[in-house]
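Tutorial, part two.
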Amino acid sequence: MDRRQQLYEFGPFKIDMGERILLRDGKPMPLAPKAFEVLLALVENSGHIVEKGYLMNRVWADSFVEEGNLKVTISLLRKALGEAKGEQRYIETVPKRGYRFVASVRDTPGRSSLVLLEETRSSVTIEEEETDSSEERVQSFNIKPGAADPAAMAPSGPMPVSVESFPAGSSRKPRTTMVVAAVAAGGLAVIAVGVFLATRRPAERFQTMRMVRYAGNGDARLAAISPDGRYIVNSSEKSGRQSLVVTLVEAGTRAEIVPAADVKYMGLAFSEDSNYVYYSVMEKKSEQSTLFKVSVLGGPSKKLKEDLDSPPSFSPDRSRFTFVRETSAEGESALMIADAAGQGERKLAAQKLPSFFDYPAWSPDGKVIACTVVTSDHVKVVQVGVQDGVEKPFALRSWSYVEQLKWLNDGSAVVLSSREQGSRNFQIWQVSYPGGAARRVTNDLNSYEGVSLTADSTTLVTVDMSMHSSLWAGPNGDAGLARQIVSRVSDNCDPTWTPDGKIVFPLTGISGRNLWIMAADGSDQKQLTVDAGNDSTPSVTPDGQHVVFASDRSGRHNIWRIDIDGANPRQLTNGADESAPRCSPDGKWVLFTSFEPATRTRRVWRVSIDGGDAMQLTDFSSSSPETSPDMRSIACFGLGAEASINENPTLIYVIPFEGGKPLNIYKVPGILSYSAGICWTPDSRGLTYAATRGGVSNIWEQPLDGSAPQQLTDFKSDLISSFAWSKDRRLVCTRAAAANDVILISNFR
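Running the prediction step on this input gives:
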């Protein structure tokens, strides 16, 4: 029997292996994934002692956590099962050994309520529990360039967005409520429908949320859904060039409506009738974007407005739109309004730079515009009156970054994509209006960037931009001999070597990102810092006595130092935002990157290994410094004079160790992996860095004599987000695979 159809029943509870959820009297229980795994392990071994070590290895095999996490999880399980304090009706604690599930368990076969769909080349066949043997197929609709009416692309009548809908006239009556679909070969693939448990919400308010992954080609960047739910438009990136693609949701048919170009899409929206797409796009050498309008069928684009510094948002009647414009001469960021043709501009409100407005969203009643205000250390959501321009608070809390805002159709709340302090992942939040209370819509390890809603606010579209990362190590950068040593790490994992050949690296835990140390093969892991904040980018002193790192444990991102065993933490710097520390070869100095809020630029600095006054080394946009082994030079990333401040560094600069003007400048082949940093060769005659070509990252070496760079590794897949060399030329690197899939979410309110 397929284990996915297995059912375990005890008391009023049932574990459904197909859906991987716990039910009580037929209703889903809010249970975190790790807690579910622990419960499953106990139930599968009902009546027997389950050792703590077994549970830790089974549930947290890909993480480094303390045994206390298991105790907390057991406590949460007992609460979910309704056990009173001191009661062991279901789970018995066996001192010094583990736990035993003591309730009577009925192991029964049964069909999961999660129905699978058969994968075909051009259609989706639904497998159901029924007696009718006739087949019903969802029609396939092709987008035909040049069709007279966009509505001709879609089936007649309302287009059902929900994946549990069936063709009109079907005699089948499904007994289930969720499906998983896959459409192969060139179409749109719905590859997962998940039930996400909102564990932070009270049980009485629990509700299921349906998520559908539309895995096109894994190249999505921005996405929007049409008001009627028929179309999805997304920007697609291949080889550094972006295009616009429209997908017919029901059929999965994709068509490129704006060809690939060397641009970056900043915002997407549909017209009220769903027949046109508005898009703001920025040429990569420019700092402003331009607003265009194009038919969902493709064809020529119409330019509407230039000089926008944010995506636009339209008024409810589509007669006007709002956007942000920054003016350096006036030192301000202005929230603007213009008519639908881009004329009749009016300044509504302004922020003094370096604070600035972003992501405006016009309310359904037309009275206010919600938008973000970005400051040097946080992002808040505000509302601005359309008539009087008065700015008022909107959300009761702030975030590290907010990417987009959209109003619910009844004006009761906005949904937004945001990132909290200490995290690189974006989650979907909902903020009530006018109350301003914020709650999570998603709460997992993925990163959901951007939001778009249908007109009735029943379906939300976002893009999963998650990076699934692992640590690899091998001799001399030989990709064929490289082996995975840690299967799951944070995407911002930045490993470094100790002089005796161990690896120090950060790992995200329950309460923040901590530093760990382990042997070169991944064994003997030990935690160095414990939930004092978010610690990152470690660097070990040449004598192996200390680790320097960046941390926000003081409330700001500064440079810190600890002993190699994690003891004696010491703060070395006191700036507003400092990162990427690197020890000099003589062990006397720490080089680091400092962000300047006033100019929104980064500079290279250095400070004594014992702290004190820091010294600025560069006066141009620069970051990720690394000192040469001979102590004569410093290499760092920088922007060319022609580059936009919104771009990642594209050049490598070599400056004197004492600072000053560049001695040499090198152009990077491919797309530079900014987060990976720079390493010198042992003889100080070359630089190594990570660059991406064709969607794959490898390590390159740039000789200082100016000769052509040489590729050192030959990985065939994945991206390299960080790397480091040991003294004996062993390589450790973080390899990451990006999702970049469009996600449809329903039942999220």
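The CA atoms of residues 199 and 590 lie 42 Å apart. In part three we will examine how such features are distributed along the chain.
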